[in-house]
Amino acid sequence: MVDRRLLASGVFGGLIAMGLVGAGAFIGSGIVNAQVGNRQVTVRGLAERDVVADLAVLNLSFRAANDDLPTAQAKIDRDLALVRTFLTRQGYPEEAVSIGRLQVLDTRAREYSSGDNVVRFILTQSVTVRTTDVQRVAQTERALNDLVREGVQLDFSAPTYVFTRLNAVRPEMIAEATASARSGAEQFARDSGTTLGPIRQATQGSFEILAREDLDSEPAALNKRVRVVATVSYQLR
Fold it and tell me: Which of 6, 101, 139, 221 pairs with 171 at a CA distance of 20 to 30 A?
């Protein structure tokens, strides 16, 4: 005859074992669901737009050197008149042209002294053109040899071209970058056999203004490219 105490103990032990198995299955299912619930994909969307600079700054400087200060000053005055006449011929209004401060260097002064054979006085004058007529500046740059032919000792640097209308293109470009990110996320969801859920997090990178051609420096480039990247995390279902 089977001992009732032994039978009861065996049944109780079996119930405990079944309970542990059931509990283990429940916990395991909970972990899987948590992982499914937390699945997400993070993608980046790029938006680019070609633009043309709408502001140009042209800096011209010229110098005169002589051992006699009045003679050097007279040369600077002559050259300044030539530069102003040249810019008028190029079509710039007076308000677009500003005259910088005259700089005078005495090479015989103690802090600059470098020998008796150096010309004593070196005078430098600067003129700045600031205009929204960027195409005119591009033409002026090609005509600067006319000043050199007239005897102006010109120190010239390339014009600076600026795109100031970033706020005008910002909203559309952000929308384009976000749409690009969503397109990539939807493709990932299809490939992985899931569906795309709501946005969990989104960040917008800084807007970059670059030269349209990689060989150019951005400040000297009339034609530019604006770029922004949006990083978006989506829930996966």
Answer: 221
pLDDT of amino acid 111: 67
Q: For 142, list phi and psi in degrees, rounded to 5.
A: -75, -15
Q: Which segments of the chain are extended strands (E)?
A: 40-52, 55-66, 97-99, 103-106, 121-131, 154-156, 160-162, 196-204, 208-211, 223-236
> Quick one: pLDDT at residue 110?
67
Rounded alpha-carbon distances, angstroms, from residue 207 to 119, 134, 193, 204, 229: 49, 23, 34, 9, 8
Return the pLDDT at 39: 85
Environment class of residue 33 by beta-carbon count within 10 Å: exposed (0-12), middle (13-18) or buried (19+)?
Answer: exposed
Dmax (CA) of the chain: 136
Task: Of 161, 64, 175, 82, give the one whose Cα is nearest residue 121.
Answer: 64
Distance CA 119, CA 116 (A): 8
Report for 11-25, 34-48, 176-190: range of highest mean pLDDT: 176-190
Q: What's the gap between Cα 113 and its chain centre? A: 44
CB burial class (10 A; 0-12, 13-18, 19+) of residue 42?
A: middle
Instruction: Count other C-beta atoms under 10 Å from residue 165's C-beta.
Output: 14
Amino acid at 96: A
Q: Region 193-200: what's the mean pLDDT?
A: 91
Mean of pLDDT values over 114-127: 85
